[in-house]
């Protein structure tokens, strides 16, 4: 049977004047959460389903929290087959998006399919209840760990890639390096936003919208620079590229940074920014805006990259038959592009296959490959690519030749230490 048990120390932390004003403690019970669904802003609905009656207790005009002894609430489970149960309460404190919150509440007893007892360290005017995610399967913690770990590794690798291609003059003078640095910069910011902003502690509506807007923009710019990278290699392989080099980077920058900005501005302008909402624990686009302002550009980029990929492969096959065509650098560059397009562009296709029985498999593939994009870029363009390795080796050798005295002095100092050690041991 549903019940609420209050601790004896309930009024312990109240001031004398507050304690004297306590005349009654109110209790109420509701069969469902319709009242809260009406109260809750439609743009901030969480993907939850209430799995119990709503029970509440409060002291009028007083807020009771941080109790030494918990308030115990016993619930009868409505859906006996439900999983991922949580003890939650309705949080409507200032500066926080109204919704169900589990802060300060925990499950102290659970009889599977029958009863659950929640223990909370506060007493409010809203119900302490149970909640179960409406999704058909439980939230997969492994996916979250993979995503966060992959993003952290990729962020570090992208920063290293940017430093290498900017600091070495021979690399930075190349058009391909400028395109690569732009792509890496966009992806690095995207990973940073995901790691810092896409967390449950972003509770305010303004913070939620800001995170969603920034993530939307930099994901689109990353996709745009992927297309620029593909088109750049297409020009260098299929056509004579020298005539386009002077204006290519300028035009590419305008398109790659500008078109996503236009899409985001239009999305913000329509429906007074309510297209960016909080869904469960993350901030993102609502469904109509997601399909129009994100999924559509993703599909267009994938189609474009696939066409470019096919043309480049066709060109490679035709040139390999021609014995006169031998350009080692170009081949290495194209191999790098093939790896980049498979690991960056085509991995987005995994998301489209995440349906029915194959959902979990393709979700793991999508998370692994897309969160490790930065690491793959570093491996292909800094470790695998011979041109980059040669430039780094040449620079290191030049520095050694430029400072021979330091090398000789270092050797002499090392020899003296060894001699002293030998004398001491003798």
From TrEMBL:
Gene Ontology CC: membrane
SMART domains: GPS
GO terms, biological process: cell surface receptor signaling pathway
Domain G-protein coupled receptors family 2 profile: from-to ranges: 143-385
Listed Pfam families: 7tm_2, GPS
Cited SUPFAM superfamilies: Family A G protein-coupled receptor-like (SSF81321)
Compartment(s) of residence: Membrane
Key words of the record: Disulfide bond, Glycoprotein, Membrane, Transmembrane, Transmembrane helix
Transmembrane segments: 145-168, 180-202, 214-241, 253-270, 290-313, 334-355, 361-384
Membrane topology: Multi-pass membrane protein
GO MF annotations in UniProt: G protein-coupled receptor activity
InterPro entries: GAIN_B (IPR057244), GAIN_dom_sf (IPR046338), GPCR_2-like_7TM (IPR017981), GPCR_2_secretin-like (IPR000832), GPS (IPR000203)
Family from the record: Belongs to the G-protein coupled receptor 2 family. Adhesion G-protein coupled receptor (ADGR) subfamily.
UniProt-recorded name of the protein: Adhesion G-protein coupled receptor G2-like
């Amino acid at each position: 049977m549903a019940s609420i048990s209050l601790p004896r120390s309930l009024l312990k932390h109240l001031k004398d004047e507050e304690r004297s004003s306590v005349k009654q403690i109110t209790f109420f019970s509701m069969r469902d959460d319709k009242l809260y669904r009406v109260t809750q802003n439609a743009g901030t609905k969480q993907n939850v389903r209430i799995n119990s009656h709503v029970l509440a207790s409060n002291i009028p005009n007083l807020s009771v929290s941080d109790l030494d002894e918990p308030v115990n609430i016993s619930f009868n489970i409505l859906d006996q087959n439900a999983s991922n149960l949580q003890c939650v309460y309705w949080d409507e404190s200032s500066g926080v998006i109204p919704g169900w919150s589990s802060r300060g509440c925990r499950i102290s007893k659970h009889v599977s399919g029958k009863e659950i007892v929640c223990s909370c360290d506060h007493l409010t005017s809203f119900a302490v209840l149970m909640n179960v995610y409406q999704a058909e399967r439980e939230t997969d913690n492994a996916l979250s760990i993979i995503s966060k770990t992959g993003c952290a590794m990729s962020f570090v690798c992208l920063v290293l890639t940017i430093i290498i291609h900017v600091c070495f003059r021979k690399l930075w003078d190349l058009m391909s390096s400028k395109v690569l640095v732009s792509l890496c910069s966009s992806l690095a910011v995207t990973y940073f936003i995901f790691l810092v902003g896409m967390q449950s502690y972003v509770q305010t509506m303004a913070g939620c919208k800001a995170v969603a807007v920034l993530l939307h923009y930099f994901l689109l710019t990353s996709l745009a620079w992927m297309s620029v990278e593909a088109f750049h290699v297409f020009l260098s392989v299929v056509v004579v590229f020298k005539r386009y080099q002077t204006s290519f980077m300028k035009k590419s920058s305008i398109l790659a940074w500008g078109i996503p900005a236009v899409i985001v501005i239009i999305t913000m302008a329509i429906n007074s920014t309510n297209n960016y909402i909080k869904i469960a624990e993350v901030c993102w686009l609502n469904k109509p805006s997601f399909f129009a302002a994100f999924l559509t550009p993703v599909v267009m980029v994938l189609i474009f990259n696939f066409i470019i990929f096919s043309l480049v492969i066709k060109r490679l096959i035709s040139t390999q038959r021609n014995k006169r065509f031998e350009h080692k650098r170009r081949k290495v560059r194209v191999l790098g592009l093939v790896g980049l397009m498979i690991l960056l562009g085509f991995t987005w296709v995994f998301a489209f296959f995440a349906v029915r029985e194959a959902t979990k498999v393709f979700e793991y593939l999508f998370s692994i490959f897309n969160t490790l994009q930065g690491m793959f870029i570093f491996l292909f363009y800094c470790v695998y690519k011979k041109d980059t390795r040669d430039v780094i080796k040449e620079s290191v050798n030049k520095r050694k030749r430029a400072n021979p005295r330091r090398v000789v002095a270092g050797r002499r100092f090392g020899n003296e230490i060894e001699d002293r050690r030998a004398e001491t041991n003798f």
